[in-house]
Amino acid sequence: MEATNRLARFRKDSDPSIIVRFTSKKVTHRILSSRRSLKGTGTCIVCSEDLTKVNLDRLRNIKDLEETERAWTKRGTGTIYALNSGGKILKFDPNHSIDEFSAMLKTKTNRLHIQGPFSAQTTSSAQ
């Protein structure tokens, strides 16, 4: 760890939050990629990336979709992934709208058929 900062107590009956900055992006990515293993440990630990407002809004909107089982970002790039009810992991393409991504989640496919002036085109958003 490079630095830690203790924040003011949010509530009087809880411990104060701590912000941690790691020495390298490699360590940060390793911690963030293993955050799922902390679930169910009984310890209240929140690991999150510092996302831009646009990517944070996109992530929240994707998490709110009925078709989304889980959504997350990876490797500090702002790339958003979602797991649909069919068990398929899809990568969100920022060139598509949330509604188009929702349609992809519903069809349980990684291919999007675009309607409009270029209706014959098919684009792939999962790699």
TrEMBL record:
Superkingdom is Eukaryota
Q: What is this protein called?
A: Uncharacterized protein
